[in-house]
Amino acid sequence: MPLIETENITKQFGELQVLKGISLSVRKGETICIIGPSGAGKSTFLRALNHLESITSGRIIIDGEVLDDRENGVNKSVLTKQQESDILLEMGMVFQRFNIFPHKTVLENVALAPEKVRKVSKEAAEKRARDLLETVGLTDKTDVYPSKLSGGQLQRVAIARALAMDPKIMLFDEPTSALDPELVGEVLNVIRKLAQDGMTMLIVTHEIGFARDVADSIVFMADGQILEQAPPGEIFANPKHEKTKTFLQAVL
Amino acid sequence: MLDKILNALSQMSGWIVPLAQSAQVTLALSVISVILGIIGGVFIALGRISRNGFLKKICGAYIFIFRGTPLLMQLYFLWMALPLAIPALTLQNRFVAAVIAFSLNSAAYQAEIIRAAIQSIDPGQMEAARSLGLSYGQAMRLVIIPQSIKRLVPPIGNEFIMVLKDTSLVSMISLVDLMKKTMQLQSSTATALVYLPSAVMYLIFTGVFTWLFNRLEKHHARYE
User: Fold this and answer.
1) Which of 3.40.120.10, 1.10.3720.10, 3.30.465.10, 3.30.360.10 would CATH assign to domain B18-220?
2) Is the distance from CB of B48 to CB of B61 less than 8 angstroms?
3) What is the widest separation between alpha-carbon atoms in chain B?
4) Which CATH number does the domain housing residue A246 bear?
5) B-chain residues within 8 Å CB-CB of A162?
6) Inter-chain contacts counted by CB atoms under 8 A, chains A and B
7) ipTM of this predicted complex?
8) Distance between CA atoms of residues B9 and B77, nearest Å
9) In this predicted model, what pLDDT tens digit does every residue of A179-237 receive, in sequence order?
């Protein structure tokens, strides 16, 4: 059973259809990178999974539970609010612009949600936060405010913060696009390590080299559709769709 | 010449105690009204940005009414017109009437200040909080509102100073504040000189509170 299954997702913004029927399935432990030109709907798709956008029609099934079953924007799934938030908690999200809480220290950023949502004790939440900050290499920054950190460090805090809720799935929305080039590597290394540890991940990225390296499967999106999905070796060596070829020629 | 100045100074020094006593009313009225106004303002602001259309309209109408009519009229309305219409709402105490009028009025202004401050926070903050499983209320309370406080302090400081000066309107319902006392002393001594120490007192209050609000702003900017 796939951990994420989407069936024919569409999303309408007024007249504009940004998603035109996305069907994708992600197995446990799989890393899938979504590439494609800007405006393809990659971020919208990712945000729809996490309910930061609502979809117009289609089904989203997370770990066997039907989160959305929509037609004309009306959800036919019969989950209670509590069930819905429980399912959403299985997905951790990392944003392009980090969205770290500036008024909290690094440690507080990571410990906040476990304490307030999972109702873990403050001590336990902070201990776990320290462990996670160690794995992303920020042991010496636990008690500083985010304004003192570089973009790469902020994004690593954001990853630790999402991991603190013990999600089964991590969603990355262009995690390195807002970073200076010299800071990209440190963030990609953390993501790479997560992939090795068997985390299920869906990554929207423009880092083609990284995608080739880390992904089990590459999804190419354009104009609100998935045009092609294949293992990196295949898609880069032998792209089938004309738009994939054009895109890869432009970025490689 | 020197005689006259010394004479005036000694006359003024005699006014300090009665003026200072009535100034307590001015200060208490300002502080209580602004605090109640902040509390009311938070709820009205949250109503204004909520997705509930009805709540949004009600809060919008409140702001429209209280910002769109003279404060003096609101004060008169509460003190004189309302008891005629609804006898049960007759207020016995002028100070209480003034606190209610000023709080209701200030809440309308502060609601707009608070709404603007909340909406100036990057929407990504709410998204991050929600994606971590925080409820809308938790996200507001723990993430959005704490960040907006720093941006709230300067305009609320400004609002406080406006209220402090506007409280002089209560002289019109015969509540003896600093302004009313000044007017009483003027008529009993037949000299307008009393306005000078009274004005200095207002300046001292606004000066001290300006300084306090600057300190508060620096304190809330400490994490930057």
Assistant:
1) 1.10.3720.10
2) no
3) 76
4) 3.40.50.300
5) 131-132
6) 60
7) 0.93
8) 41
9) 999 999 999 999 999 999 999 999 999 999 999 999 999 999 999 999 999 999 999 99
